[in-house]
Amino acid sequence: MSTTMTTEPETATTPPKTAAPPRRNRMPATPLERVLRWGLRIVVALVLGFLIVPILIVVVESFNSVDYLSFPLEGWSLRHYEQFFSNVDWVSATTQSAKIAGLAALIATVTGTLAAWGLGRSRARGKALAFALLYSPIVVPIIVLAMSYYFVFAKLHVIGEWVLISVAYSVMGVPYVLVAVSNALQQFDPELENAARTLGASMTRTLRWITLPQLTSAISAGALFAFVVAFDEAVIILFVSGSGSITLARKLWDSVRYDISPTVAVAGTVLIVVCTGLFLVAELIKALKERRERRA
Hints:
Layout: H1 31-61, H2 79-86, H3 88-121, H4 127-139, H5 142-156, H6 162-186, H7 191-198, H8 203-214, H9 216-232, H10 235-240, H11 248-258, H12 262-295
């Protein structure tokens, strides 16, 4: 009597596993590589410390309880902040700095964005020269710009006019906007503009509804840099402010020369907080845009 054994085919209930990519065998670091790696880390730490420690000392010094600058602190107090924000001269200087920097950032943003868009779409031979000229305010020494503005303003008898000072600062802000928007345009597909023009949109409507929304983060970053440059710059304002446009940087310079007190450290802390806050805002805008693009 024979017994026949039958086996039912197994049903696959789980998808086949994909082979994991082979791991790369990293060669162990040699003693020389370890020394160089730790040496690089130490150098970076020293550089960061050299840049950050003086800033932290200024911030800590603003909380000093005595009427003169001393470190280490002799006590902690907020009375110098009260003196700063209750002093009409300091508040007026801060407001004037914000007003000048705001107008300068607006002019630089509009000019730099249009220049970047025009140069990015142009095929003229002088394109590189035009870009270099717009970028030159970063390369030219600041003292040369300050003297040039002084001679022009003195000739026109407009020293101390805050609007013209904003125009002067906008020249320094244009390169930051130009670089930021130009880099963003390199990643922008020009066929979107061509499609809009083919469908009947004018150049202005295409720029407004197609191009600019794609450049929002780059324009915002360039505008923030332009604002910071105009807000805390001290060399140019020393030449062209006169007695009618005393900014926070100019007031800080005068105070350091004639009256060294922790109130000066408070003014420096205000500059640090404003500039740092704006850079954090720029990074937040960038992070939100990247998050939105990943979701899309």
